[in-house]
Amino acid sequence: MAGGPARALVVTHDLFDELEAFYSIYRLMEMGLEVRVASTEVRELRGKNWSATLRPEMTVSEALGGRWDVVVFPGGYAPDRLRRYDEVKELARRTVEGGGVLVSICHAAWIVISSGLARGRRLTGSRGVWDDIANAGGVVVDEPYVEDGNVISTRSYRDFPQFWPRLEERLRRLGIVD
After folding, report:
1. Is the distance from CB of 107 to CB of 126 less than 8 angstroms?
2. Is the pLDDT of residue 3 over 80?
3. Cα-flanking dihedrals φ and ψ of residue 100, to 5°?
4. 13 classed as catalytic
5. How confident is the model at residue 1 (pLDDT cuts 50, 70, 90)?
6. CA angle at 159 for the pair 164 and 46, rounded to the nearest 5°
7. Pfam families from the entry (predicted)?
8. Which position among 13, 36, 83, 107 bears the catalytic label?
């Protein structure tokens, strides 16, 4: 990509879904993206199953000053915490408005909703957020890969075998990955 390698940001918080976070990080790296991890503060974060920790490299506030081709929000309980921060909602809006790809996994649909990006948009997520999507004016789609403009969502890690190849194909069409 012109101007250096494509850049991806994975944003999470305490009680993140370990599979969704780590799979996303490594899958994006396999695609050749420069991957960074951010949260609301730089400290050790614990996964929801207490099976792993993750230390972000930067805060979301710092990430707002960067260029991100892809921003991924893994699920777990982390999205419920993240959606309470203005800088997280600002990052989601800037990503979509700036032409970047926003990836919402599982409960991360809450971030799309709280950022004001759900109305009229086709989305999926964990069954536990379907009412929230509908109540925010979104259209719930029960499929493993849902693309609406530059917001791409999936239900959970169980959909990854169908989701990630399609996401990679979309990023290739956009010129983000080779």
Report:
1. yes
2. no
3. -75, 170
4. no
5. very low
6. 90
7. DJ-1_PfpI
8. 107
Whole-angstrom Cα distance, residue 130 to residue 91? 23
Cα 54 from chain centroid (whole Å): 16
Q: Report the relative pairing of strands 58-59 and 70-73 from DSSP bridges.
A: unpaired
- Residue 88 CB: number of other CB atoms within 10 A? 26
* Spatial contact of 106 and 16, defined as CB atoms under 8 Å apart: no
Convert the pLDDT of each residue in 34-87 to its tens digit: 999 999 999 999 999 988 999 999 999 999 999 999 999 999 999 999 999 999
Q: Which of 104, 101, 87, 95 is nearest to 156 (CA)?
A: 104
Asked whether the beta carbons of 105 and 124 are under 8 A apart, the reply is no
pTM for this model (two decimals): 0.97
Give the whole-angstrom CA distance, residue 118 versus residue 8. 22
What 3-state DSSP class applies to 87?
helix
| Distance in angstroms (rounded) separating the CA atoms of residues 124 and 134 | 10
One DSSP character per residue, 114-177 reads HTT--TT-EE---GGGHHHHHHTT-EE--SS-EEETTEEEES-GGGHHHHHHHHHHHHHHTTS-
Q: How far is CA 67 from CA 10, 12, 151, 163, in A?
A: 13, 18, 17, 24
